[in-house]
Specification:
Mean pLDDT: 95
Structural class: alpha+beta
Bound molecules: adenosine monophosphate, zinc ion
Shape: globular
Length: about 110
């Protein structure tokens, strides 16, 4: 997707502070942290949101790879004692970038939703 900021980050057209990368997924620091640790995890293929995941399509594999990797990354950032994983979906869900991503947020005591 040519106008997608996360596709541009994946392509290296926009710089990012990378945390982890392999053939299928990329993790990088959020530019606007809401906690001491705030990492974004994205599939390297463009998927609009969680709404578009489908067990019969290989795209579910990208999400599964991200979810499998998150605990290891959380541990490496010293937040394995507690953190939050969020994915916003659509306009009302507060999704500002229409490329599936999971926020990993931690490093402070988190409130119920904030
Ligand atoms: P959401 O509101 O769930 O779509 O989250 C999008 C997130 O992307 C926000 O937390 C932004 O701060 C973050 N973001 C937007 N552009 C960049 C960028 N170029 N590098 C890193 N994070 C970004
Ligand atoms: Zn994209």
């Amino acid at each position: 997707m040519s106008d997608c900021v996360f596709c541009k980050i994946i392509a290296g057209e926009i710089p990012s502070e990378k945390v982890y990368e392999d053939d299928e997924i990329l993790m990088f620091h959020d530019i606007n942290k809401s906690a001491p640790v705030h990492i974004l995890c994205v599939p390297k293929i463009h998927i609009d949101s969680l709404n578009d995941l489908n067990l019969n399509h290989e795209n579910i594999k990208y999400a599964a790879r991200i979810l499998e990797k998150i605990p290891e990354i959380a541990k490496s950032f010293g937040i394995s004692g507690g953190y939050r994983v969020i994915t916003n979906i659509g306009e009302d869900g507060g999704q500002s970038v229409k490329h599936l991503h999971f926020h990993v947020i931690g490093g402070r005591k988190l409130g119920y939703l904030g």
